[in-house]
Amino acid sequence: MLSGNICFHIDDFVDVVFWVYISQNNKQSERWRKLRNIVQWTPFFQTYKKQRYPWIQLAGHQGNFKAGPDQGTILKKLCPQEERCFKLLMKDILRPFVPEYKGQVTCEDGELYLQLQDLLSDFDSPCVMDCKIGVRTYLEEELAKAKEKTKLRKDMYEKMIQVDPKAPTEEEHRSKGVTKPRYMIWRETISSTSTLGFRIDGVKKADGTSSKDFKTTKTREQILEAFQDFTNSFPNAVPRYLERLKNIRATLIESHFFKTHELIGSSLLFVHDKRKASIWMIDFAKTVPVPDNVTIDHNSVWKVGNHEDGYLIGINNLISIFESLTKDDNGNIDQCYSNLSLDKNVRRDSLAT
After folding, report:
1. Which of 192, 228, 241, 326 has the fewest Cβ atoms surrounding its Cβ within 10 A?
2. Which of 228, 232, 226 lies closest to 207 in space, CA to CA?
3. First and final CA of the chain: distance in angstroms?
4. Quick one: a GO cellular component term (predicted)?
5. What is the pTM of this model?
6. Nearest to 134 by CA among 61, 49, 184, 195
7. Which region, left, alpha or beta, applies to residue 218 given φ > 0 means left and ψ of -120 to 50 means alpha?
8. What pLDDT does 308 receive?
9. DSSP 50-106
10. What is the pLDDT of residue 289?
C-alpha cells in the first residue's frame, strides 16, 4: 500500500518470517534457478512447492522478498522512502546496526528490489523476534487523512470485538461500525506499544514454529515472560542482547539520522542461535524527515503535531527488561551473568554478527 511516498505493509512480521525462509534456502537458490525450467512438471517441484507453501501462506506478502543474486544477500521490494533511508544510513554512524544496502536490482518480472545484507546467513537454525519500536505505528499524515473520512467501518469493528467485545461504545455496537481513526488509536492501546514504547510483533523458534499471538501482550510481566520463553535454552543470548541494545542506544543519541527523522513502524530484529546473538534496526518505509520547524527527542509523550515517536522510550524499556532477565529473585546479578558489566561504559562498536 502507498500513502504519498510512504510504503507500508499491514503486518511487517510476516515479511520477517519470509526473510527467515528465504535466508535458510538461499544457498540452494542458485541450483533451483538452473533447474526450474526443466523440473516444473516433476514430483520434485511438487515437493518443493509443498515445503514452501506454509511459509508463503504465513508471510502473506510472498512477493515482497526474494533470494538475493549473491550469497549473503536478500531482495526486498523497492519502496522509494525506504531506499532513501538506507542511502543515508550507509553514511551515518548507525550503519553497523542496519542491514547493508547494496543497491537496486531489477528482477525477471521487471520489478525493482533493494538488495540487502541477509542478516540470518551466518546463523544456524536461528531464533528470531521482531519488536516494533515506538509509541505509535502510524504517521501523523495517516491519522489526518483518516480523520477526513468519517465513514463507519464494519471490518474494523469486527476486528475490535474479536480482541475485546467490550471495546466499542454503545453507539458503535448499535451501528456495528467504527471510524478508522478510532480503530487506529485503539489498536495501539491494547498492546505494550502504548505502555512500554514497543511491542512484540512475532517470534520464530529454532524448530521452525512461529507465533504472532502478541496483540494483547501489554504488561511488563507479560513481556518479561515472552522474552524468557524466547531465550530459553540459550543463556548466552541475554547478555549479548543487552550489550547490543546499549550500543544501539548510545549510537542513536549521537546519530544525525536519528536526530532528523521520525521513525514510525520500524522494528528491532533479534536473532540468536547456540553460538551468538545480535540485533538490527529494520523496516524504514515509514521513517520520514522531521519538519524543518520541529525538533524531537524520541523520548517525550506524543501529541498530534509534535511528531514524537517514542523510540527511545521503547529502547529504554527493552534495556530495563533485559537487565531484569540477568537478575535473580533478590535483584542480584545471576551467577551465570556475573561477568557482565551492566553499568560500566558501553562499547560503541558493533557485536560480532
Report:
1. 228
2. 232
3. 33
4. nucleus
5. 0.79
6. 195
7. alpha
8. 96
9. HHHHHHHHHHS-TTSEEE-SSTTEEEEE--HHHHHHHHHHTTSTTGGGSPPEEEEEE
10. 96
User: Which residue type, as a one-letter code, is found at position 10?
Assistant: I
Closest listed residue to residue 288, CA positions, set 1, 51, 5: 5
pLDDT at site 338: 58
**Residue 204, C-alpha cell as written in the block:** 520464530
The predicted structure's pLDDT at residue 342: 43
* Distance from the Cα of residue 281 to its chain's centroid: 8
Residue 195: Cβ-neighbour burial (10 angstroms; 0-12, 13-18, 19+):
middle
Please choose, from the candidates 23, 232, 254, 32, the residue with its C-alpha nearest in 3D space to the C-alpha of residue 119.
Answer: 23
For residue 141, count other CB atoms closer than 10 A to its CB: 14
Which residue reads 522509494 in cell numbers? Answer: 80
> Which three-class secondary structure state does DSSP give residue 130?
strand
DSSP structural state of residue 350: P
| Polymer length of the chain | 353
User: What ranges in 232-310 are assigned the alpha helix state H?
Assistant: 237-254, 256-259
Angstrom distance (rounded) from CA 340 to CA 70: 37
- pLDDT for position 213: 85
Helix (H) or strand (E) run with residue 194 in it = helix 193-196
Beta bridge partners of residue 75, listed in sequence order = 66, 115
Helix (H) or strand (E) holding 37: helix 12-39
Helix (H, G, I), strand (E, B) or coil at 281: strand
Q: Are 313 and 135 in contact (CB under 8 A)?
A: yes
What type of residue is 31? R
Among 345, 121, 127, residue whose Cα is nearest residue 250: 345
* Torsion angle defined by CA atoms of residues 334, 336, 339 and 340, in that order, rounded to the nearest 10 degrees: -60
Q: Which domains does the chain have, with CATH numbers?
A: 120-135+197-328 (3.30.470.160), 139-192 (no CATH)
- C-alpha dist (Å) from residue 214 to 226, 243, 322: 9, 25, 18
Q: In the beta sheet, which residues pair with residue 133?
A: 198
User: pLDDT means per 10 residues in the chain (353 residues)?
Assistant: 42 56 56 38 31 31 75 92 98 98 91 94 93 92 82 92 92 92 87 94 90 90 96 94 98 98 96 96 95 94 93 98 86 62 36 33
